Amino acid sequence: MNIPRTSYPRVVIIGGGFAGIALAKKLSKQEVQVVLLDKNNYHTFQPLLYQVSTGGLEPDSIAYPIRKVLKDFPNFYFRLANVEEIDTAKNKVKTNIGNLKFDYLVIASGSVTNYFGNSDIEKHSMAMKTIPQSLNLRSLILENFEDALLTSDLNERNALMNFVIVGGGPTGVELAGALAEIKKGILPKDYPDLDTRLAQIHVVQSGDCILKGMSAKASQKAEDFLEKLGVNIWKHVRVTNYDGKTVTTDTDLTFETATLIWAAGVKGATIKGLDSSDFITRGHRIDVNAFSQVKGFHHIFAIGDVAYMQTKDFSDGLPMMAQPAIQQGEQLGDNLLNLIEGKPLKAFTYKDKGAMATIGRNKAVVDLKKWKFQGVFAWYVWMFVHLFFLIGFRNRMVVFINWVYNYVRFDREARLIIRPFKKRHP
Ligand SMILES: Cc1cc2nc3c(=O)[nH]c(=O)nc-3n(C[C@H](O)[C@H](O)[C@H](O)COP(=O)(O)OP(=O)(O)OC[C@H]3O[C@@H](n4cnc5c(N)ncnc54)[C@H](O)[C@@H]3O)c2cc1C
Description:
GO terms for molecular function: NADH dehydrogenase (quinone) (non-electrogenic) activity. The chain crosses the membrane at residues 376-393. By secondary structure, the protein is an alpha/beta fold. The protein folds into 2 domains: 10-39 and 81-113 and 266-340, FAD/NAD(P)-binding domain (3-Layer(bba) Sandwich); 120-264 and 361-409, FAD/NAD(P)-binding domain (3-Layer(bba) Sandwich). Helix content is 31%, strand content 23%. It has 12 helices and 25 strands. It has helices at 18-26, 49-53, 66-69, 119-124, 131-150, 154-160, 170-185, 187-190, 216-228, 322-340, 376-389, 393-409, and strands spanning 10-14, 33-38, 42-44, 63-65, 76-80, 83-87, 92-95, 98-101, 104-107, 111-113, 162-166, 200-204, 232-234, 239-242, 246-249, 254-256, 259-262, 266-268, 280-281, 285-287, 300-302, 307-308, 355-360, 363-367, 372-374. Strands 5-2-1-9-21 form a 5-stranded parallel β-sheet, covered by helices on one side. Strands 13-12-11-17 form a 4-stranded parallel β-sheet. A 3-stranded antiparallel β-sheet has the order 6-7-8, with no helix packed on it. Helix 1 (18-26) packs parallel to helix 10 and helix 5 (131-150) packs antiparallel against helix 6. The protein is globular. Residues 14-20, 37-40, 46-47, 49-50, 82-83, 108-110, 128-129, 170-171, 269, 271, 304-305, 320-323, 325 line the site of flavin-adenine dinucleotide. Flavin-adenine dinucleotide binds next to helix 1, strand 2, helix 2, helix 7 and helix 10.
């Protein structure tokens, strides 16, 4: 990889997501050599992926070059590399561009979509975990309407305009709200010769409420907002299969649809070498102690979505969200320096800053520790928080201007089929 060995200890970080970037920033001016490896040369702001899928934002405005984040840091190296294996015996990572030795290794590889072993659903459904996947979804949604215009088969037309979202978490809820707004505000103008009132949006949820991790008030209000927007919410229904045409469930309910969006779960993005049952636990995440150390190692760590850390308040592991990832990254920065200097390590404590989700224009729900609120003010808070956490001044400005423009004009101008998506037909 052409990275010189220096007198500084080498810290290799796998993944430039929220956790990896937070850690790298913390180590930026310290006497360590930091090597960050990521299979993309950009950081993805995943909370806004649904806006890319629905034409509200261009993909570039939620991505940021990793090299630019860390450009002024001495002793810092970035390599565009897919890490394929971790050799814990030789303290080495194996990648598609070569091998690299480490003194300390931090796995911050995030998570991947969890299909719970259903290969049909994996093959035929759409996921929304990466920018390319969001662009695929954007293309498919738009292509469906173009195809709906052409067919004279009513069943086929309905299936093309029928959107089924599996999972009533923040991703499913936000996507459903955005699709409902497109149906109301954009489709009638773009497709005047198509009866777009027939378009349907369904959210299928196996549990008894949507936004399960949030307060009962937030969950109920989100449901009310979605229903007002015309979204059908199906609770206590578990999707069992999808062959590319028909969605079957564990009830009598079935859906004919050309688009099933799978937002029903994620699992840790583990890497060969540390992916055996000795290390992996609930949610296919790597079991770590309160110092983020992988069991059995003092110099190998996991942080963010891929790490399973139990705390007093989170006996099922910390949530797979941006805040735990950022806080773990920052804390590990301090602990790595402590470890190198032979000082005691500090146990991680999570400062829960709450949760929020937006349902659409003027509609959001926010749960803070001591204050829970919904509606227009919540929507402003949601926008402010998302702008604040976006990386890069340009991205913040572009997103802000887009939001103002979309708000004033009731528009979503990025509804472009730049890279057509070819769905595999069953
Ligand atoms: C659609 C969606 C909406 C979300 N909304 C919210 C929200 O509103 N609020 C919230 O708090 N959280 C939200 N989340 C969750 C949040 O984005 C994650 O919890 C967070 O990104 C986890 O950070 P991370 O650093 O652990 O992983 P990530 O941010 O996923 O970063 C992992 C990085 O590792 C790289 N990588 C993975 N494997 C390898 C490999 N083998 N080799 C090299 N590089 C690799 C990836 O390319 C990626 O850059 C959302 C997630 C999604 C998908």
